[in-house]
TrEMBL record:
Its cofactor is Mg(2+). Residues 313-354 are annotated as: Disordered. Keywords: Hydrolase, Magnesium, Metal-binding. GO terms for cellular component: cytoplasm; nucleus. This is Nudix hydrolase 4. It comes from the Eukaryota. Residues 313-323 have a biased composition (Basic and acidic residues). It comes from Porphyridium purpureum. PANTHER family: DIPHOSPHOINOSITOL POLYPHOSPHATE PHOSPHOHYDROLASE, DIPHOSPHOINOSITOL-POLYPHOSPHATE DIPHOSPHATASE. Residues 171-302 form the Nudix hydrolase domain. GO terms for molecular function: metal ion binding; pyrophosphatase activity. The lineage of its organism: Eukaryota, Rhodophyta, Bangiophyceae, Porphyridiales, Porphyridiaceae. Residues 324-337, 345-354 have a biased composition (Acidic residues). PROSITE patterns: NUDIX, NUDIX_BOX.
Length: 354
């Protein structure tokens, strides 16, 4: 089992001239915008002292600590357990103060809660994104409670509690997407629609996106397919749930029987200027997926493709028309496929027309 370093950090806060809460953040080339944190050294006097010290050095802020917000686990490659406290800032050090020793090329800045969230969503380490979003939610709840009580919380008496549950240990970002398919009128073979990754135009993927709070996964999948691929149709069966421990994502994929694709000028296809789309036979799609060099190859896409082929073969065998699937989005969600493998030859014969 991997060992996790014991770290601490703060979310420095203050009220501006209008009585609105602001958060102090630090920007580094590696992480982007986040909050001060540091590993507890062996000779440190305590977790709280380390938290205060790292806040002074990284963002040049002093103040008193409020309640502990919780403990978050940041997985590999960071391997850190981080306890965060609120800090009520009562002073800031000047740029020339020797106690202010920010990371190389680091910056600091005050932001409203909404502005802070926008910066957190750009964190470069994907595995840290969800934990920071959880942390920000805790901060927002605490500040709202302070405003309701018209008071400032005092420092609690506790220090490190090793029995405290880890907030971010098993939380995965919920995503949903579609595998859009149609039958080629001339060949009679099933085709699949893929889109370019915005991060690398040499990589082709299936449309997907994050599930909004309270939103059914099917709604997310259909919306993302419309926006990313410019395709609409009837939602078929759920193909499965794929979990990615390294990026802390869990993706539900559905089959989509495409009824229409938007023209390149149609504004409903929102990402028409960001990515290309392409119809492929299942065999060609599999070949394209496997053509990407490691480590950028996406082996789970072959698994998704194979899962999509099964209901299509059944439709062909029964010579019936595809119908919309009305099953519960959450049915069989316990059957999760964890992705930790490379592509292998066991995924052969995904061609649904075979």
């Amino acid at each position: 089992m991997a060992e996790f370093a014991t770290c601490v950090g703060t979310v420095p806060v203050r009220k501006d001239a209008d009585g609105k809460w602001e958060l102090l953040m630090v920007k580094t080339p590696r992480m982007g915008w986040s909050f001060p944190m540091a590993e507890i050294e062996k000779d440190a006097k305590g977790a709280k002292q380390t938290a205060k010290k790292c806040t002074v050095s990284s963002v040049g802020a002093t103040g008193k600590l409020g309640p502990k917000l919780g403990k978050w686990r940041f997985p590999a490659p960071r391997n850190q357990d981080v306890r965060f406290w609120v800090m009520y800032v009562d002073g800031e050090l000047g740029e020339d103060d020797k106690r202010y020793d920010p990371p190389a090329k680091g910056q600091r800045g005050w932001f409203k809660v909404g502005q802070a969230k926008n910066r957190i969503m750009k964190i470069k380490d994907a595995e840290c994104l969800e934990e920071h979003c959880d942390l920000l939610t805790k901060v927002r709840e605490h500040l709202s409670a302070l405003d309701s009580a018209d008071d400032v919380a005092e420092d609690d008496a506790s220090d490190v509690d090793d029995t405290e549950p880890i907030v971010g240990m098993v939380k995965f970002r919920e995503c949903a997407g579609c595998v859009p398919v149609r039958k080629n009128a001339q060949s009679g073979k099933w085709e699949v629609l893929m889109v370019q990754s915005t991060g690398d135009d040499a990589i082709w993927v299936f449309p997907k996106g994050g599930v909004e709070p309270g939103e059914p996964a099917k709604v997310t999948a259909l919306r993302e397919t419309r926006e990313e691929a410019g395709a609409i149709g009837k939602c078929g069966p759920k193909l499965g749930v794929w979990r990615f421990p390294q990026t802390r994502q869990q993706i539900k994929f559905f089959l989509l029987y495409v009824d229409d694709v938007f023209e390149a000028t149609d504004s409903r296809w929102k990402e028409r200027k960001k990515r290309q789309r392409m119809w492929l036979t299942f065999r060609a799609a599999k070949k394209l997926i496997k053509s990407v060099p490691k480590p950028d190859r996406r082996p789970e896409l072959c698994d998704v493709l194979k899962a999509a082929a099964k209901p299509l073969k059944q439709i062909d065998a029964e010579n019936r028309v595809p119908e919309e699937d009305t099953a519960d989005d959450n049915a069989d969600d316990d059957n999760v496929i964890e992705i930790d493998h490379d592509i292998n030859d066991n995924n052969d014969d995904s061609d649904a027309s075979a």
